[in-house]
Amino acid sequence: MGKLLIVGTMAFDAIETPFGKTGRILGGAGTFIGLAASQFKIDSAIVSVVGDDFPQSYMNMLADRHIDLSGVEVVKGGKTFYWAGKYHNDLNSRDTLVTELNTLADFNPVVPNNFVDADVVMLGNLHPNIQLSVINQMEERPKLIILDTMNFWMDNTWDELMEVVKKIDVITINDAEARQMTDEYSLVKAATKIQEMGPKYVVIKKGEHGALLFHEDQIFFAPALPLEEVFDPTGAGDTFAGGFAGYLTESGNISFESMKNAIIHGSNLASFCVERFGTERMVNLPKHEVEARLVQFRELTQFNIELT
Hints:
The protein has one domain (about 5-300): Ribokinase (UDP-N-acetylmuramoyl-L-alanine:D-glutamate ligase). Strand 12 and strand 13 form a beta hairpin. Helices cover about 35% and strands about 25% of the residues. It is α/β, with parallel strands linked by helices. The mean pLDDT is about 95. Strands 6-5-1-9-10-11-12-13-14 form a nine-stranded mixed beta sheet, with helices on both faces. Strands 2, 3, 4, 7 and 8 form a five-stranded mixed beta sheet that branches.
């Protein structure tokens, strides 16, 4: 069974959208990635940090999904990372209302001994120095290292981010971040420039408009499933990453063709995530619903065309 090491936040979120608002609920990149990856037959572990205010019930829920939590540091007397945000009417833009780093400010990640030989490493959106530390703790180079990052790290830690980018195989970023990273408006040109920085594969997420996969001169596009209701897009990108990484870990195949399937699996799981606030939909997501929606994805994109 393949091993997936996940590095990312376990956090509290407070979210407001046009459809309602929450108090403090479970969030964090590591949480969403882990829940999505748990849909696959793999061994997974999360490396993260929380305060002792993080409920044991959340830990139990993740452990019940066969996620190894031995790499999660619980800081006695510490407070867990907290983020609050408000989404605009189109749900494509948001305002950050509160960011409290708390225990994350002094986080030194420690990879569990039984995952230093992980097949796939998924580096969730964190400070590049944390991501680099995890890479350096691996016993040997993993088959695949996937990086998720954002504009904040491009603005504030460019040199450190570039050190990480040199060492990875796949980067997942959104279209605005790809343009910022390269000063190119064309996403095709942007992807080419990013590949020159190090990653062999570039995944550019376009939210409700799907995702693009680039490798050398090959391009693949996966649509997003049109949904009747979207409540909360907060964890969608991380859920996508978890599905993408989970599928590749289970298959053991890291070819371009396999990555196409991984993109679809990631998009499929992300389509569930946005239907409820926070992790609510992902916590009790049955396999038969996942498989039924995969069929919808296939029907959305399959067609026969006669060329004369």
